[in-house]
Amino acid sequence: MPQLNPAPWLFIMLTSWLTFSLILQPKLLLFAPTNSPSNKTLPTTKPYSWDWPWT
C-alpha cells in the first residue's frame, strides 16, 4: 500500500511546518490589528416578561 509509505510526503510536511512556524509566523504576528478592542461597556437592557396568549 503506497499511501502508508511516509517517504514522499513526510519531509515536505515537516519542511513546510518548520517554514511556517520559524519564518512566517513571527512576521505575521508583528502586524497590529486594525480595529483594537475598546473598553466601552454596552448598555444593559432590562428583560421584559413575555405575555403568553394561552396562559
Structure characterization notes:
It is a single chain. With 55 residues, the protein is mainly alpha-helical. Helix content is 42%, strand content 0%. It contains one helix and no strands. The termini are far apart. The mean pLDDT is 80.
Number of strands: 0
Number of helices: 1
Helix-strand sequence: H
In terms of per-residue confidence, which ranges show pLDDT below 50 for 5 or more consecutive residues? none
Work out the radius of gyration.
27 Å
Helix/strand-derived category reads mainly alpha
Q: Whole-Å distance between the termini?
A: 68 Å
Largest sheet: none
Mean pLDDT across all residues, rounded?
80
Globular, elongated, flat, extended or rod-shaped: what is the shape? Answer: elongated
How much β-strand is present in the residues?
under 5%
Q: Percent range for helical residues?
A: 40-55%
Describe this protein with a few key phrases:
55 residues
